[in-house]
Design goal:
single chain; alpha+beta; 935 residues; 7-stranded mixed sheet
């Protein structure tokens, strides 16, 4: 009787918890780990301690200032100020900010950066060492100067005008022109429509120095600024430093009002049609603007956010199901609920129609939306979506101490700018579970009906010249027809719940040997079918497990005529589903589970890679098992793939970037190279369903030819029975494959040409490359990388800062081990066509300087410091452990041994780089192709 009463009491307690009334007006639970304060001058600060990466911290300043605050004659000044923050401050004149941080391994555009948007400007210094004496104070001083210490010298302002113009030039393309044309419709003719952050080049060219300084004084002020420090720090110490350093900044007297631009409601649907000569495929965006509160968030707001996410996810799933049918009128379609502006959200559809099918694509997607509005969602759809959310929350909570700095700062940023709550994730999940327990299908039905209003609708059509583009009248007529369609019926979810391996007979094998590797702390299992699995436990990232199975061979063992089919293997496999399930049903089977895998075939290797959580590792291994024994090749999916490829071909026709790509390929390899074919009609015709199937079966028919790697938060005891069941049971043979040398030579040793293309906005694009045979070694990989980064620093100084000729030049390098030992590097940049030839000559001059030994020790130290920093930081991730295993067992070296990284890096001298470059450039192969606008 006592036990029965106990059970009843527990049931009653559980029922009481589940039946608790949600207090919708209660505030959301706050994450107490985030220290938030406001100084007397109005500046806000946030501090968060985390050792997700040890001995580093990230520093941000969030300015509640964007292009929306500019007057008509100031367009572009908010963004210009962002640039000037890196061009001289009170305590760091000239390039002092960059030079100071780069000495400690920080890399510009990676660790040090900023962005300007309509409503905010945010600066960041990421992963700056905290164990270097004085560097915390230095980083805070940089934030201080960004808040109240920009020098804004006339010389630096004038030098930056050219850089801004080249940034504008680089970003100009057909998509950007259409985006700008859509702004008046998107933002209902408010100020947003005329405040692209890049601004007007007429303003950039001609604004007076005082105008920029006035904008800085008016808007960069303490009541509109927040600083955030996240990382391996002492919270009390940082707070004390912030109060001491930032409190003396005076608050502005009689500040200009920081207004928020509201987007007014619209009774009639707003419509825009845009076409561009460089765009050959269409896009339809049908949205309904929604109210957005900036008040303190409550449980009601959490419920609304949860419902909007669920509705979007379920509707997107239905649309994806349609897109997987060959006769679908669109390539893809999705539903989303997102932020439009500071004071407005938006809900709606994004549709990519097939050529000349805009009207049908719009109607089909709209029918699906209205089906949900009229009939709601099925209980099975809702249950699967709840499973997805439960899994997301549980995974996130299990990894709460591994939350990346950027994710924490994003939470802080939304709190400061839009008053979003910084919630305690575990307590938020408790509320979410309560919402789920009390939620009904009718609640979600009522919610989507509330979203689907007759007002505040916006239709933006990216049209195609010469096509029958969706007109406003056609759209309105379609909307009316669909909304009044009495033949529309409820969605039928025909999926019957099954397990992933239902109907699959699995005969488990055995682990026949187990060998420990003390050097790595790893274990090598040999299974009864001959498969070798290398395993290493690592809980550096809790609840995270990575998998890879790799085998040499790849495309090198495939006939040239079959290469187009080989290129589509991984795509068709993903589109087809797995085992007995098509892609739609597979996603339903895996709902609420983390079992992500990917098939890959490269020039020399085929592989299966995967990511999962501790609880779902069995599911992931089931997926891997099926990929070997029961892959799925769906002919309907192949027809969809063909449609998508044809649509992609149309998209490429007018795209300048693809024209450049094809031009380089034909210059280097000719028009008829079987291994380097152009993507055209004949390429698509040569893609065969049967050939894709046979290539997959050939490449993945012998698991024993693969080396398996598993690392992460799974114990050996838990893993071993799973290996015996799902991996040792795989069919194998004793055949071992080797890759072949399938490399292709350039037609000419030296290739130099100008290519003239028709383009709307004149721009030159420079591509320069060099390659030569060179001995592969770990030391040489670091020497080549150092040369790459030193050259990029030199080009930043000369091409960008001195000449103002480009927004930036990128340098990429590679030292390959197989099929040939080959060193190569590439230089790429966009620029003013009138300056292209001069800038190219400067590139060659800088390469020659390095070749002749003119290497600034400071530049080398910056590069080497960044590599040492990377070596330390990469160890904070499970992926490092996977790479450790792969490099040890496949490449033959131990990443943990300092002689293979740290010692090599520290030993690099300017003479090493000079010697390397001099040898590489001797009898080198090269191309220099400059794309210019037709006159």
């Amino acid at each position: 009787m006592k036990n029965l009463l106990t059970v009843f009491s527990l049931f009653l307690a559980a029922y009481t918890v589940n039946a608790q009334e949600l207090k919708l007006n209660d505030p959301l639970p706050v994450n107490q780990k985030i220290k938030k304060g406001v100084l007397k001058n109005g500046m806000t600060y946030y501090i968060y301690k985390t050792d997700v990466i040890k001995n580093v911290a990230s520093y941000y300043i969030i300015q509640n200032v964007g292009s929306i605050l500019e007057n008509d004659d100031q367009q572009g000044l908010a963004h210009f100020l962002e640039h000037m923050a890196f061009n001289g401050t009170k305590n760091f004149p000239g390039k002092g900010v960059l030079n100071t941080l780069q000495k400690h391994g920080a890399v510009f555009a990676k660790d040090i950066n900023a962005y300007t948007a309509f409503d905010e400007t945010v600066y960041n210094m990421d992963n700056i060492p905290t164990n270097v004496p004085g560097l915390i104070d230095t980083s805070l001083l940089i934030l201080h100067d960004w808040a109240d210490g920009l020098l804004l010298t006339e010389a630096e302002i004038d030098a930056e005008r050219g850089v801004i113009k080249e940034e504008w030039r680089t970003r100009q393309n057909g998509y950007m022109r259409l985006f700008k044309k859509s702004l008046p419709t998107m933002f209902n003719n408010t100020k947003y429509a005329d405040r692209m952050p890049i601004g007007l080049m007429s303003v950039i060219d001609n604004f007076k120095y005082k105008a920029l300084r006035d904008f800085y004084h008016d808007w960069y002020r303490t009541d509109l600024q927040a600083i955030a420090v996240v990382g391996d720090i002492d919270v009390a110490e940082i707070e004390q430093k912030i109060e001491k350093l930032f409190s003396p900044i005076p608050a502005i007297k009689n500040p200009i009002e920081r207004f928020v631009v509201a987007i007014p409601d619209n009774a009639a649907m707003l419509y825009n049609l845009g076409t561009d000569k460089e765009i050959a495929t269409s896009t339809l965006s049908f949205t309904i603007n929604q109210p957005k509160s900036l008040k303190d968030e409550t449980v009601a707001d959490l419920k609304e956010s949860l419902f909007s996410g669920m509705v979007s996810r379920m509707l997107s799933s239905r649309l994806r199901e349609i897109s997987q049918k060959p006769d679908a009128p669109f390539v893809s379609a999705s539903c989303s609920y997102s932020s439009l502006a500071r004071a407005k959200n938006t809900f709606g559809l994004l549709i990519s129609p097939k050529p000349n099918r805009q009207q049908q694509a719009f109607k089909t997607a709209l029918e699906e939306l209205n089906r949900a509005v009229k009939f709601g969602f099925t209980q099975s759809e809702i249950d699967r979506t709840i499973a997805v959310y439960n899994n997301l929350y549980q995974t996130k909570i299990s990894k709460i101490h591994q939350t990346p700095h950027a994710e924490i700062v994003n939470t802080i940023q939304k709190n400061y700018l839009e008053n979003e709550a910084m919630t305690d994730m575990a307590k938020e999940y408790d509320l979410v579970k309560q919402i789920f327990n009390q939620m009904t299908a009718q609640d979600l039905h009522d919610f989507i009906k509330k979203l689907y209003t007759a007002e505040n609708r916006v239709l933006d059509v990216t049209g195609v010249e010469g096509e029958n583009n969706l007109s406003q009248d056609e759209a309105l007529k379609t909307i009316k027809e669909v909304e009044n369609d009495t033949a529309l019926v409820a969605y039928a979810d025909e999926f019957v719940g099954k397990t992933l391996t239902s109907g699959v007979e699995i005969k488990a094998g055995k682990i026949v040997s187990e060998k420990s590797n003390k050097e790595l702390g790893a274990t090598t299992f040999v299974l009864s079918n001959g498969v070798v699995v290398n395993y290493k436990f690592s809980d550096i990232e809790k609840n995270n497990v990575l998998f890879e199975a790799a085998s040499f061979g790849g495309n090198s063992l495939i006939k040239d005529a079959d290469l187009p089919s080989a290129a589509m293997v991984s795509t068709l496999v993903r589109m087809s589903g797995l085992g007995d399930y098509n892609a739609t049903d597979l996603s339903k089977v895996l709902a609420g589970k983390n079992a992500n895998t990917r098939i890959g075939i490269t020039d020399l290797e085929e592989s299966i890679s995967g990511m999962t959580t501790t609880k779902d590792i069995e599911t992931m291994l089931q997926v891997v098992h099926l990929q070997f024994v029961k892959p799925r090749f769906d002919e309907n999916s192949f027809k969809v793939l063909q449609n998508n490829l044809n649509n992609n071909l149309i998209q490429r026709r007018n795209d300048i970037a693809y024209k450049m790509e094809d031009s380089i390929s034909t210059t280097l390899y000719g028009f008829n190279n079987a291994k380097k074919r152009l993507f055209d009609e004949n390429y698509i015709k040569d893609i065969s369903f049967e050939k894709i199937k046979s290539i997959y079966q050939d490449r993945f028919n012998n698991a024993a030819d693969f080396v398996f790697f598993i690392t992460g938060d799974v114990s050996k005891e838990a893993l071993k029975p799973l290996l015996e069941k799902y991996i040792a049971s795989l069919p194998t043979n004793k055949k071992k494959e080797k890759w072949h040398d399938n490399s292709v030579s350039w037609l000419n040793k030296t290739n130099k040409k100008d290519v003239f293309l028709a383009m709307e906005d004149p721009k030159a694009t420079v591509r320069i490359a060099f390659k030569n045979n060179f001995k592969y070694s770990l030391k040489n990989t670091y020497i080549l990388k150092a040369f790459q980064d030193i050259l990029e620093l030199r080009l930043m100084e000369t091409l960008r800062e001195q000449e103002g000729g480009t927004y930036g030049a990128s340098v990429f390098s590679s030292l390959t081990k197989r099929p040939k030992q080959l060193a190569s590097f590439y230089v790429y940049f966009d620029c003013n066509p009138d300056k292209a030839d001069k800038l190219v000559s400067i590139v060659h001059q800088e390469i020659d300087k390095i070749k002749n030994g003119t290497i600034q020790k400071e530049d080398l130290n910056k590069a080497l410091s960044s590599y040492l920093k990377e070596v330390k930081e990469e160890k904070a991730y499970t992926s490092y452990q996977l790479n450790l295993l792969y490099d040890y067992f496949i490449e033959g070296y131990n990443k943990n041994d300092t002689k293979n990284n740290v010692d090599l890096i520290n030993a690099i001298t300017p003479q090493d780089i000079q010697k390397f470059v001099s040898a590489m450039m001797n009898d080198v192969q090269s191309f220099e192709i400059i794309f210019k606008p037709q006159k």
